[in-house]
Sequence to fold (307 residues):
Amino acid sequence: MRIVVALGGNALPRRGERPDAAVQQPNIDRVATALAPLAREHELVLTHGEGTRTGLPAVEGATDPALGDPCPLHLLGARTQGMIGSLLATGLHDALPGRRVAALVTHTLVRADDPAFSRPTTFVGRSYSRDVAHALARERGWHIARDTAGWRRVVPSPSPERVLETGTVHELLNGGTLVVCAGGGGVPVVEDRDTGALTGVEAVVDKDLTAASLAEDLKADFLLILTDVPCVYDDFGTPAQQPVLDATPAELRRKGFPDGSMGPKTEAAARFVERTAGLAAIGALDAAYEIVHGRSGTLVRPELVTG
Fold:
């Protein structure tokens, strides 16, 4: 079976941990341990979050006084994609002796006319005081918005059209290679209609929606979305909380999960199942093997056809 695994950002680091180098290795080992049993039985493509969306690279670019022209966001994303991809590739190499593993920096095509470019909503980088945030916005042309801890930069989150290196991923899979790619949703680029030239854009593509698009194009059998909770919950965090163990795409959408947490994951699972008639599931990293074998997580399945 061909499985695309979307690894949530809270695994690298976990929720509440600082994204320091000393924290990364134990979490990489945990990922490799969780995924190795699946990799021994199935073809795997691993996508991942940035783990630093609060943004160590973005913070560096924003605050280093020696940088008169800070590195653009799409290149910061490429740098983070390479760093985490390298960590995951070496961890999986050690957990799977003899298995070929490759980490790719991949690019995600988005539409230049995507409405998201006129409505930046995704927070990146650190929090600032109001005065500092407004000064940076004037100096660097940023959009800013109030967050729980202060003021932060917001950027567009356009919908992924396709991962441009999908053909390369397919060839590697066919050769028995476990592929790590599409980190942080991939490097967002737009394509010139006349020349085909690619240009990076100041945006962040949702990693789960990118994973769903990639899984569809790779003709995967299963999309596995791993996070830090055992399954999807109705009324999460309230006394009325209830697990959702089995659902169709329509049933998930009717529940209206919020954009800031489970919403993108449920939408990614729903899109993949609708477009491919395959299966998707959402659950905890440490239960990855159990989820694929139907013993944990939330299963998302196609609508039953009657008549």
The mean pLDDT is 89. The first strand starts at residue 2 and ends at 7. The longest helix spans residues 73-95.
